[in-house]
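Progress narrative, work stream C.
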Amino acid sequence: MSMHIRHSFRILYTVTLTVACSMLPLPEVALPSGTAYADETAVSAEAKPPKIPAKLFAELPSLQQIEMSPDAEHISYITPHEGRKHLFIHPRGVATVDNLVVIPPIRDADIAWFTWANNDQLLISYRFTSDDPFVKYVRTAMFSVSKDGKEWVDMAKPDREQRKRGYTTSPAQFKDRVLSHLRDDPDHILQQIDSDRDGDAEIRKVNVRNGKFKRYQASRGAIQHWWLDAQKEPRMGWGYRDDNKTRRYIYKDPDTDDWDNIEDTSYLEASNFQFLRFTNDPRLAYALAPNSEGRMGLVKYDIRKAEITEEVFFLEDVDLANVQFDNNNEIKAYVYTDDVYRRVMTNKFLNALIKKVYSLLPGGDITLVDYNQEKQIYLFRFSSPQEEGEYYVLDMKTKGLTSIGTATRVNRSVLSDVQRVDIAARDGLVMPSYLTLPKGYGDKNLPTVIMPHGGPHARDTMDYDYWVQFLANRGFAVLQPNFRGSSGYGAAYENMGKNEWGRKMQQDVTDATRWMIDNGYADPDRICIVGASYGGYAALMGAAQEPDLYACAVSINGVANLERMIRNARKFIGGKSYRETIIPDGMDAEDVSPYHQADKIKAPVLLIHAKDDPVVPYIHSDEIYKRLRDQNPQNKLITFDHADHFLDNEESRLATLEALEAFLTEQLIK
């Protein structure tokens, strides 16, 4: 299954430099800030940029999930070929047709992630939507693949009894749940799998070279998820009971080795508590939890006492999003987002090195992506609102900083700036938001797109967004409000979204729209509300609740029928349903459901939906379109037969951008 593809490699330049750090104080070296491609030229800040082909924005990132082999001799990354994600592997340095190995997608399954299992083999996860015509759901597969692409091994083989019954592969829905890569044993991994799909997961120790496995932990009733302690012993498990309303938690006592039910699970079941891993003491765990001010940070949690024993690390203004650990279970990095994604290393040498690279690559943000300290090889990512990612390898021995390539082919000098704006809602709440004004079009009375994010417990940032930059290149101002209920700003801010679908969360989006008008940015007669997933819901509800404010609305894979969503959704932790957590007090679901409020929508609506969407089923858009099509001949429904919720192939991305441009031009460019 190996193949070679002639590929236009985006290798930009190699610069020899002198690197300064705490050990090596060496001089500065200037690097070029970017590369213009043949169909583009750099433009001044005041000039109107050329209209960049939609295809360039729609292309999948040229470099994703870039990773070095443990010995730093090979480099691998996901890149598109013919509109699908492929895995590229080649020796560290310049890729050529002769040394490049390409791992393809498999039929309708796309590569979801990969990692090096050892110096010779990679683990690759494939993600696809079930072919069930009635219920769409995600399935995964996982293979071990040699670095030359010639040897493939299924990592989820059927057990003996299944083979007797004629199974050639495990029927498990999820086959890519790796609990540990066992770095001290590079031939094996620990894998969680419900191999017979009975609702209970076991743990296997799997040989990555041949797929053979031994049972490491037998399944236990109503346990679908396992946690290992620092010594790789199964220490805790949880799962839903048969009624899907309540959870079961079990814990293996380190003194007796008995599995006991955990009585007090108030912390574990809290929506703002995230278990990360055990400390070196199996009685204590690391977790993300809020402090007294409501901000998420790192804590230590005593399993038996069900209490937080230590606040380890908190930020002043934003939530800690994640913590990364090294192979010795020591904290390696803190991950958070203020206005952009940040990864702060705990190692002083590495932080000094990152600071040096900042000085060499100004105008953006630097992230240390991967490294091999023994061989002094470091992999960096440069990013900005105009650059999705440009990657560099630093070799401390040769003092060479080599650009591997960039994730996008659009020259960043022709893209628009993004600025943070803080917008006050009607009740005084301040919403951190991001405003993108189209370069060269001025800043007054612009055709405007209001773009509420999905989730809704998510957030927008200033990082590169291909939708935003595409729309700005077409002359539209874009506002991305982080309305109440958005994550990243503390538990209190996120909890303000509870029971506020269609009410205060929606009012925040309305207030952000009026802010654009009051400050002169938006032409009040040329505003469209556009969103995906929950953002699609907000777009439809905005059109229903504010028929005179929006000239049009676009919902992409959006929620339209709340009653249907509530019926189909799994219960929340603690037995609380969607109805109890999203519907405003004193209201029914129909009161804040676009499908049930469709007769109030007067503005033209564009609906875009993937028929294979396993998150928000296609029927949401199909149903509301049947109600809308007779109200306005400008209402449209566009469908994709082979795309998922995230529009993860170039065909669906391009079709979405082209449909957006045509619809917005028709409705707003007058």
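Work stream C, second folded protein:
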Amino acid sequence: MQISSLDAAGQSGMRRGAAVLLEILRSEGVEYIFGNPGTTELPLMDALLEIPNVSYILGLQEASVVAMADGYAQAARKPGFLNLHTAGGLGHGMGNLLNASVSQTPLVVTAGQQDSRHTISDPLLFGDLVQIARPAVKWAQEVAHADQLPVLLRRAFHDSMAAPAGPVFLSLPMDVMEEMSGVDIGTPSVINRSSVAGGLDDLAKALTSIAPGRIALIAGDEVYASDAAAEVAAVAECLGAPVFGSSWPSRVPFPTAHPLWCGNLPTQATAIAERLSAYDAIFALGGKSLITILYTEGPALPPGCSVYQMSSDVRDLGRTFNTPLSVVGDIKASLQALLPLLQKAATPHQADYAAQAQQVAQARRAQRAEAVAEAKARRNEAAIPPRVAAWEAVRAIGPDVAIVDEAIATSSDVRLFLESAWPGQYSFLRGGALGWGMPAAVGASLGLGRDRVVSLVGDGAALYSPQAIWTAAHEKLPVTFVVMNNQEYNVLKNFMRQQKDYLSAREGTYPAMDIVNPSIDYQAMAKSMGVPSCRVTRASDIAPAIEASLASDGPSLVEIMITTG
């Protein structure tokens, strides 16, 4: 009878470093390794033959690999594990690694390194991986011996999840992966991070001291990470307060069908201040909720508006705006402890809070109805406006299918039209570096147990990581890629139009912002990777095309031709 090397390890205790690594991954519950192998990964690829319950997900470019792991980690709510190839592969993945860092996605990032026995001779593919990775990760280290793998890998998994969550990096020299070791891998540690914030009595008094109707909640990305949507809803209902989303979110972490949901804040400081001008205070749940893009005169916080915060990341409290009281703790656990204190303190004004809640819900319904009416009124125009495309796409997708959005031209309208009881439906490109959406949708499908996912992507963004289409086809994943195609970098043109002193804005000429001559043939691209596709030029055809795609077993691509405004 043939005995595998892992079986032999159980008898002799000796096995290669690559086998040790895979044993640790299996014990940590890792389902997938996202990667694109090269020479330095050969020991790992060989060891995979003996670990059937850890699957290797092949991406055809490292930028796609990182985003797949990011999408998986967000959907599965646990660290994603990926393996890149030397300095060049790490360099390819840096854009999406920065996205993951900004989004605070827990990732254990590894890269194969040259055999350390000949690095003195400057071999091909060698580079200082630790220094390359360091700006984009929480920490970076090179494994010196196979015996270090249990401690360093488990440390990486732990630290990627610790607040603030984010990627960590390990360099894996080829000789370490081939080194024989008898090290005991141990067992995973159990770490309960559900710490309850202090000062909750004072916080309850402070929040209820604000006049009914004069306080707003901001549900940041951390609400999703903490799975605290129900607790946020309970606090909002207690105070009769509107719930806004972050200005540039990674997630919409609150049920968009909830009557107190009021959509995401705008991305300019002056516009945010105008939106919040009706309030004396905001209660921000999670950090970095007021992200701005282009500079505008004045702060995002209106004068006289106090900021109360709750976050597990102490570094973000009081970072930009002065706060009379902010507390450190897990959002879910802390809100569960805060809620009874809040309800007791709010009892004298319960009728006022209820009246305010009705006013907020009525205003939200009116805003959405107006947008729907506009979309319907423009449905028969010769060319498809972005708002019409967003409305038709959202109603075809429905409330129960995950959406990964990187279509900037339609994203604000998509969020406006969402109406779902599921706070995990929608994710977005918080990092801002294009090329995340399509591969993130592939990873999200895997993280949701190979469930259906819709990738909304702009035509410009689609050209950064089209390799994701191949991985979706190879893995037979039910991912619908919806390309919103305006044949230009529309968001850049819009930004330039806002700058009245720009010559481009006055003359209507925008260098290097049109994707024409030649135009991209997305049907040919999809076909070359084994994915069926269609092109939509009439609004009435959008919903049927997306619905047909959602009814299919595997991936497909729907291209929607939209106008520039």
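The two ends are 69 Å apart (CA to CA). No further action is required on this item.
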